[in-house]
Write a structure and sequence with these properties.
The longest helix has 32 residues. Strands 1-2 form a two-stranded antiparallel sheet. It is globular and about 65 Å long. 69% of the residues lie in helices and 4% in strands. By secondary structure, the protein is mainly alpha-helical.
Amino acid sequence: MSSLLLASEGAHSTGTTFPLLSVLVLTPVVGALVVAVTSKRRPELTKQAAVLFSLLTGALAIGVVVLFKRRDPGFQLVDDVQWIKNPDIAWKLGIDGISLWMVALTGILFPIAMLGAPAHDEEKSFYAWLLVLEAGCLGAFLALDTFLFFVFFEIVLVPMYFLISGWGYGERKYAAMKFFLYTMFGSAFMLVGIVALSYLHAKGGPVTFDLQILAEQQGVLAQTTARWLFISFAIAFAIKVPIFPVHTWLPDAHTQAPTAGSVILAGVMLKLGTYGFLRYGLYLFPEASAWAAPVMVTLGVVGIIYGAICATMQKDLKRLVAYSSVAHLGFIVLGIFAINRQGITGGILQMVNHGLSTGALFLLVGMIYERRHTRQIAELKGICRDGNALDARTGKRVWHHQVLKHDLWDRDLPAAPVDR
């Protein structure tokens, strides 16, 4: 089964003298620091600096895609620096055909989110948190040390919590706390699994958290032990995806999050769960993954049907898109746990597709809300009809997309209170 993954068991790693991946991860961190020290007298510099560093990170991500050698099955551009000597924990980053597209997706979506959904207040904190979030997502996709992966996996919770609670709508504090508690609960199981895996693997010898070493020597674990360890990882990833029935935090988080937060949550953060199943489920525990596949496929199918039914019943446009994500991610879970080349390739493709399409949908919902001050579907009917009426009075003929643009972007609308 591991041979189905591009970073298959026994594949070699290729490094470079220039730490490109480390620069890629640390660039948003530097950007966050620069944003934090920008002068309050020049507020326009805050967004400009944030967008500049996010675009630079995107350019580096595209550079990684260009440098990637698609015929090399191993991890490439590896940066490996010892962090802690005993136990052996390292700052080890690498990229393969799975993480490559997640890095590219991250590099593309963050600048779009910043440009398409700006903050209305406290811009400095808003953009600084977004850049920290970008660094955490990139680090999680690139980490080749299980402890380092856990650190990045947890880092992303903090900025997203503050983005939802600080710049969200309505019951934003409730949604932010629910998101944080759910994901922290799952992460506790994963931390136990990571530590147990390394110490059980050592068998009294040197303890290592190196992902490649643990995967190549997975045979040292008993079958039952490997299955329990897989379950500890699977709980964390199932909540992060999320998979039915641990999905209930997602609609609330999406509905109350600011537009940029929803774009990144759907487009990038949810992929940490599906990526985790690929990188740490199938790669570290192939037999246990096959053993759990019937349950995971069943939950995926239930999620597809349940998410689709719930989406059709929603009155809030943003909540509709949120429930549709539950269904879409069910298809990704199906592909992963088909445990064949076609399924895994299709799952990765759908991860990218979902990130782009659902991110765009949340961006459009945010644009509509900013101009109509409502997300209630019943109150949004007639957008094109109103545009045609206005157009008839001017005597000009325009195409459908021009009518929509005229109605949403150019029409003067009465002011309405915004529930924040």
